[in-house]
Known about the structure:
By secondary structure, chain A is of the alpha/beta class. Chain A folds into three domains: 2-45 and 60-108 and 253-318, 3-Layer(bba) Sandwich (FAD/NAD(P)-binding domain), CATH 3.50.50; 109-246, FAD/NAD(P)-binding domain, CATH 3.50.50; 331-390, no CATH class. Chain A has seven helices and 24 strands. The relative contact order of chain B is 0.18. The site of flavin-adenine dinucleotide (FAD) has 35 residues of chain A, from helix 1, strand 2 and helix 6.
Amino acid sequence: MKNIVILGGGTAGTIMANKLFQTLARDEWQITIVDQDETHIYQPGLLFIPFNIYTCNDVIKPRRDYIPKGVELIVSSIDVIEPDKSRVKLANSRVLSYDYLIIATGTRIRPQETDGLAEAGWHKNIFDFYTIEGACHLQKYLKHWPGGKMVLNIVEMPIKCPVAPLEFLFLADWWFTEQGIRDKVDLTFVTPLPGAFTKPKAAAILGDFLDKKNIHLISEFNTGSVDASTNKLVAFDGTEVAYDLLVTIPTNMGDAVIERSGMGDELNFVPTNKNTLQSKAHENVFVIGDATDLPSSKAGSVAHFQADVLTENMQRAIDGLPLLDGFDGHANCFIESGFGKGMLIDFNYDVEPLPGKYPLPGIGPFSLLQETKANHWGKMMFRWVYWNLLLRGSELPIQAQMNMAGKMR
Amino acid sequence: MPVREIAGKQVDFDDEGFMTNPDQWDEEIAKVLADEEGIAQLTDGHWQVIHFIRNDYKEKGQSPTIRRMNKVGNIATKDLYEWFPKGPAKKAARIAGLGKPQGCV
Ligand SMILES: Cc1cc2nc3c(=O)[nH]c(=O)nc-3n(C[C@H](O)[C@H](O)[C@H](O)COP(=O)(O)OP(=O)(O)OC[C@H]3O[C@@H](n4cnc5c(N)ncnc54)[C@H](O)[C@@H]3O)c2cc1C
């Protein structure tokens, strides 16, 4: 038997385990997947927890239920990858040798990277919502918060799901309105980007939404430290922003195992071929999802599109064929915009998010970069799609590569 | 693509004012570009940054991020903001004759 080892059983790893199990000869290939814990978190759902739309239990399921029976799931932390010896050492002291390795260890927040952030104020009046702990703490805090100045801060790019901070603000505007205290809340978005979003057209349109919703924007703010004793964000150039409640997206980095294995860049992301998903350093190593250093969005939809490409390229590698340049950077994200509405963006490496229509056989079309109720339902439906279709590697009616149909320049 | 004459040389730029051919660069050009960025005098600190990012560019094919200058080049982030106020990565890249640092997504 030959071995494929998948590191990380989150979105990307789980999809790959399912797809490879469906496609590879079972009497030739043993697939093993490793994750450090038993619980799979539906991360897009974390956004809704602070506003009581989802409970903390609504976003978790047993990881095992999503791994095919014929794939071995090992629950252990990964100690180190030794790519030159084609093996992985686990914290439970097992050593896994592989013919092919798939790295899908994702990205996590590292509040410790910013002075003062993870200290006195942490989970007191400073919260994240990128972890289940952060989101659930914030839910409790918001329930009793009388109002004041809420600052939402992106410390540093890149972050996973770069639209999530905007969605959080839009939902906050709706939530405080519902609570009848919107007039007591000042909402401010503090970002290192020059505008509301990474890409110019979407940034302009989303910026208008911020204006309309009376959410203030402070751009090009490079957070240097947090002073939790005076409740201030301090930029590297000395500029300060005061807050009563700070919701932060701390620095996002790849897992420490990447650093321990000497396989990452300065953010512990693994240098990866942007079209084939092969590691730049090792021929029998592939990388997928948030763990890559690619200039694509770090999102579940991206991991899904990449999985189509990677499944084909793994087969080609096994059969000794050249790899295909199949991945074009395609991302597709619903943006919850509050009051039961949503937007949608669809883009790739070369084409920024554009307005127009997004055709979807059977269900669509959805409107791009415009607020509609249908987009909101698309977003809410995504949880069902995630658990029932996406993770299981089922065919979705969406092509891996981006399509220009319906888009307007 | 705009071409400008600087310090007696023909220099190619893109629409955002970044040089398109790093080989055309020399220290005289750097001084002129620095001046345009509001930096009147290039100190040893500035030069350290400029040389680091040019070497890094040769190796990696792209202008480094602030974090990379920090981690790999051993240059304190605070210093970067002091020497190249506002946008150190962008400013330093421009003065060093390199392309605009990759935007993020
Ligand atoms: C608040 C929020 C909202 C989001 N909204 C959306 C959205 O609307 N749409 C969308 O498409 N995407 C969204 N995303 C992004 C999406 O969740 C991620 O991009 C996606 O989960 C990435 O999949 P992944 O497999 O690369 O990483 P993950 O799913 O994070 O999986 C990584 C796995 O690796 C394991 N691991 C890491 N290191 C080790 C180790 N050393 N030992 C053992 N195991 C390890 C982890 O336990 C984890 O299970 C959102 C994310 C957040 C946080």
